[in-house]
Amino acid sequence: MAFITLDRKKLKDNYNYLNNLFNDHEIEWSIVTKMLCGNKAYLKEIFDLGIKQVCDSRVSNLKAIKSVNPDIETIYIKPPPKRSIPSIVRYADVSVNTTFETVKLLSEEAQRQGKVHKILIMVEMGELREGVLREEVVDFYSRVFEMPNIEIFGIGTNLSCLYGVLPNQDKLIQLSLYKQLIENKFNKKIPFVSGGSSVTIPLIHQGLLPEGINHFRVGETLFLGTNVYDGSEFDFMHNDVIKIYAEIIELFEKPTIPQGEMGHNVEGEAFEFDQDKSHETTCRALIDLGLLDIEEKRLEPANDLCELAGASSDMIVVDLNENKHNLKVGDLLEFKTDYMGALRLLNSRYIDKRVI
Fold this sequence. Notes:
This protein is 29% helix and 26% strand. Helix 8 links the parallel strand 9 and strand 10. It has 356 residues and is α/β, with parallel strands linked by helices. The strands form 3 sheets. It has a 9-stranded parallel sheet. Strands 1, 13, 14, 15, 16, 17, 18 and 19 form an 8-stranded mixed sheet that branches. It has a two-stranded antiparallel sheet with strand order 11-12. It has 10 helices and 19 strands.
């Protein structure tokens, strides 16, 4: 069985770097755990770091989080579906909201459960995903302040996840000004301006983060050491906290191009090959990992003599060229992956999850 590993020491190094960075700038932060897909062994590693607050987008994951650590503060980070509101109030201490009707239902459910439910109101700042329209923000708050059993956690925004709209100083200053406007108008305190995520971290390094931004939600940079702003990797963080290992289940020297009449593969793709290479051969390995688990374009071989040659539902083909490392059936090939690749792998019940 292919497996994925989480390196405890490297994870802690990344956490310590981010925690010191945020503490130096008086920023509170939450770890986004949705990539872990509710895996309790991995969640325990997160809690052992000392974080006080986590974010997730699945109720089942929130339930798993609370079963491992009932005292951790949880944030549900997408607008709540109406049918899930009882569970969200039960397992999420905070939820992201953009619709007054949903807040009203949260208020009613919080009363039934005898709880105070906190809400983070998201503002549309150009990404066109979730968010109250800017011209409606003040009216939205005026109505929410009247809701029983509802407490304002803060104001926030999401950028880069859908279309790649990047955060900048101007957008985040605007978000901070909304907080000041609402506090002055209603004489109410809004604790947090949650304008930060992994993509916003470079603004701290550049000295461009407005002082009003005091809350971040971070997942990818913690786990992968990624500079999400430009797709590079931070030199001062580990980018291999997570690794993938797959076993070689077949290895033969084979022609470099297919032979026979060509049609379409399982994904509906058609291929053309250079027939001048019809007499060339290469060492080809099959590994026990497939499209059901991950797209092959999300994998980066640790061995620079390996190349991904293609994939089907349950197997990926790796071109070993001359096989200079003398690999054989039963050996493991190591890979790194990106955020979406790790998310798919951790969601696969066919992949073993290990801590090292």
